[in-house]
Amino acid sequence: MTGPSAWLATRTSERTLARLVLVFAAGFVVVGSGVAWYVGSVGLSMGAMAYDSDDRTVVIEESERAAFTTHYDEDDEVGWCLYGTSNETHVRIDDVVPAAPVSQGPERVTFTCLPETAGQLLAGENAALLGTVHSHPGHDESELSGIDIALFGRLSPLVKVMGVYTDADGPAFFTTGSMTNPLDVRVVGDAAEARWDRGQRNRSNRSLNGSAGPAVRDRPR
C-alpha cells in the first residue's frame, strides 16, 4: 500500500513538492509561535498574579468616574476604553469612553477600542490607550474572573490596565503586577476634591487644637 508521501511524490514535481514542504513548515512555525506566545503570556500574568506587587495609585476625575454609572447596563456586560498616562507611582485616567460592542451578552462583551481611539484623535483628546474596563452585572464584587486573567495575559502587551465595574462595588483597576488586589484609587475634582479639602482643613484644625485625629484617606472605590 502506497503511503501519503509516496502518493504525493508521484503526482507532483520536485519544485511543487518543495514549495508544499516550505508552506507546511512556515505554517507550523507560525502556529507554534502563536501557541508559545499565548501560553507564555498567560503564564507570565499568572506568575505576576501571585505577587500583587503593584502599589501604584489610580487617579481619576469625579466626572470621568461617573461615566461607569451612566453607561452601566443591568442586563448585559458593557465596556469602556481608558485613556491616560502612567508612571512608577500613579496611573492617571484622563478619559473614560464607552465602547461600541462587537458582541454583547449577560456574561461577556467584546470590543476593540479602535473606533473610540480614532474618535479621541479626531477630537484632539488624549488617544493613548491605557486599558479597558468591563462590567459584571449581578455581581457584588469588582474582581477579575479566570477568563479575564487569561485574556489580560494575552492583551498585556497592548493594555496596561484592566478594570471591572459592578453596581455594588464600583470600578476596580488591575495590572499584571496586581491581579487579585485592585490598585488604590483617588478620585479628584469637583465634589470629591472639595470633600478632600474639607478633610484636610479638619485635620489641620484638630492638630492646632492638640487632637490627634485619624489620617485623611482618599475616597474609597
From TrEMBL:
Source taxon at top rank: Archaea
Transmembrane segments: 20-39
Keywords: Membrane, Transmembrane, Transmembrane helix
Disordered: region residues: 196-221
Gene3D superfamilies cross-referenced by the UniProt entry: Cytidine Deaminase, domain 2 (3.40.140.10)
Source species of the chain: Halorientalis pallida
Designated name of the protein: JAB domain-containing protein
